[in-house]
């Protein structure tokens, strides 16, 4: 509930809460009720005052900054900008300067930071760095494509369902995982994110309740919220999702779906065990919701780990994966596998969305799969990550840090003992991009956890900087 004298924002109105809040502050700024230089409440204080989530406040402040009414000052907060004629004239005369980097506060900022960051100094990165990938594999695939009988692929739209050879190769890949899906049950997409977006727009509608992992993927939270979906966070710990909480939420809210990562979960690195997978599928039957299984990091995991789609036979489960994490993010090739009745509607949405996906890149990925070179590349990555995890575990222990659960795959979920959002800006000023735990919370809940990328956190200097940052926050001389 809002506190103080602030009138409540109107839930269920045509204008989103963030827009209402931004409009409220914009009116006060334009009426000079808030003068230039006035400091606005912190994100958390504003959320408490108006009875909304921190995510809503961040979105409102973003809108005010975009309108030129607000500015963010590093480590100080948000301030009303001077928008008078004299200020505009000064700005016109001033030389252009690079904007100072700000620590990620939401999903969009995290993505922006990922594109701007130096991978060698980005422990919070969500992907493998470029020097872990295999450019010769890609170049070889493209050369074989140009010298093969694929001329038609290079001058046509291609099959709306996806390149036929790629879907055949994917069918074999899925069979290796225990998932039986013929080429006709597979739809290619412009990356795994596009596949998830097709599912949201085809099978969900505004007002639906959807179960999500918490912590989970910040970008997915943002996409679902943007679509008007109600999020039902399911706590995710060292043993996987809390299925007792999930059962209670399902009984109370009748969710339409559950979006989850069963293998090498982002950000914890945890994989669902067989008993948990069986119980989850029983709950889906009992409460009549479908499951979207995101296996984007599947190539970095052993094939024997249980996939929900294998146990379910693609009855209630739609399986999503892609190649950006292990092949190259420049090739936006992903796919989904689903029951025929679901696939038809998803294919129609893909047609309306962009006609088709790239037949050239899809055929190149097919060649990588057919020759077995992608399998060997993935095996080398798994071995290299295993070595990196051992080294990073030693570095973390040396600085007195502990893992919330044993790290696996690309990520570890580290507990540093202080609010990691407070660490983000000082570490960024020192040259280190981190991913605070609040970014992976569906409710933007602050805490002492952060995601560590096992391929970009090998520098001992980072761990020393992290230790120093934590000690500074804990020091009694630190300004709150």
From TrEMBL:
It comes from the Bacteria. SMART domains: HTH_GNTR (SM00345). GO terms for molecular function: transaminase activity. InterPro entries: Aminotransferase_I/II_large, HTH_trans_reg/aminotransferase, PyrdxlP-dep_Trfase, PyrdxlP-dep_Trfase_major, Tscrpt_reg_HTH_GntR, WH-like_DNA-bd_sf, WH_DNA-bd_sf. In the C-terminal section; belongs to the class-I pyridoxal-phosphate-dependent aminotransferase family. This is PLP-dependent aminotransferase family protein. Keywords: Aminotransferase, Coiled coil, DNA-binding, Pyridoxal phosphate, Transcription, Transcription regulation, Transferase. Residues 371-398 form a coiled coil. PROSITE patterns: HTH_GNTR. Residues 15-83 form the HTH gntR-type domain.
């Amino acid at each position: 509930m809002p506190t103080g004298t602030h009138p409540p924002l109107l839930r269920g109105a045509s204008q989103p809460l963030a827009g209402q809040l931004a409009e409220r502050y914009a009116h006060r700024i334009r009426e000079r009720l808030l003068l230039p230089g006035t400091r606005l409440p912190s994100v958390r204080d504003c959320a408490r005052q108006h009875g909304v989530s921190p995510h809503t406040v961040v979105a409102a402040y973003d809108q005010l900054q975009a309108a030129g009414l607000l500015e963010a000052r590093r480590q100080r907060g948000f301030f009303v900008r001077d928008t008078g004629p004299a200020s505009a004239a000064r700005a016109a005369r001033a030389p252009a300067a690079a904007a100072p980097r700000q620590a990620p506060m939401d999903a969009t900022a995290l993505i922006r930071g990922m594109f701007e960051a130096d991978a060698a100094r980005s422990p919070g990165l969500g992907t493998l760095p470029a020097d872990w990938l295999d450019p010769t594999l890609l170049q070889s695939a493209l050369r074989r494509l140009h010298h093969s009988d694929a001329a038609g692929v290079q001058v046509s739209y291609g099959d709306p369902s996806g390149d036929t050879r790629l879907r055949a190769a994917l069918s074999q890949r899925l069979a290796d995982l225990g998932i039986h899906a013929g080429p006709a049950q597979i739809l290619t997409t412009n990356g795994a994110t596009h596949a998830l977006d097709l599912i949201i727009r085809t099978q969900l509608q505004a007002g639906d309740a959807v179960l999500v992992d918490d912590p989970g993927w910040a970008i997915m939270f943002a996409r679902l919220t943007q679509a008007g979906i109600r999020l039902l966070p399911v706590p995710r710990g060292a043993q996987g999702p809390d299925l007792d909480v999930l059962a209670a939420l399902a009984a109370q809210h009748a969710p339409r779906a559950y979006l989850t990562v069963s293998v090498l979960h982002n950000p914890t690195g945890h994989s669902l065990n067989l008993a948990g997978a069986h119980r989850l599928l029983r709950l889906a039957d009992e409460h009549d919701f479908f499951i979207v299984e995101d296996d984007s990091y599947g190539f970095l995991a052993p094939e024997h780990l249980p996939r929900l789609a294998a146990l379910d036979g693609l009855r209630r489960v739609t399986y999503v994966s892609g190649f950006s994490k292990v092949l190259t993010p420049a090739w936006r090739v992903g796919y989904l596998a689903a029951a025929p009745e679901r696939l038809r509607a998803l294919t129609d949405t893909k047609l309306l969305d962009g006609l088709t996906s790239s037949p050239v890149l899809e055929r190149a990925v097919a060649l990588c799969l057919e020759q077995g070179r992608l399998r060997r590349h993935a095996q080398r990555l798994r071995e290299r990550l295993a070595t990196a995890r051992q080294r990073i575990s030693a570095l973390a222990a040396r600085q007195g840090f502990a893992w919330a659960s044993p790290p696996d795959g690309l990520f570890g979920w580290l507990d540093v003992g202080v609010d990691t959002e407070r660490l983000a800006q000082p570490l960024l000023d020192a040259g280190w991009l981190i991913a605070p735990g609040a970014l992976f919370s569906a409710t933007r809940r602050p805490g002492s956890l952060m995601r560590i990328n096992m391929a970009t956190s090998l520098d001992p200097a980072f761990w020393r900087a992290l230790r120093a940052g934590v000690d500074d926050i804990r020091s009694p001389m630190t300004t709150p």
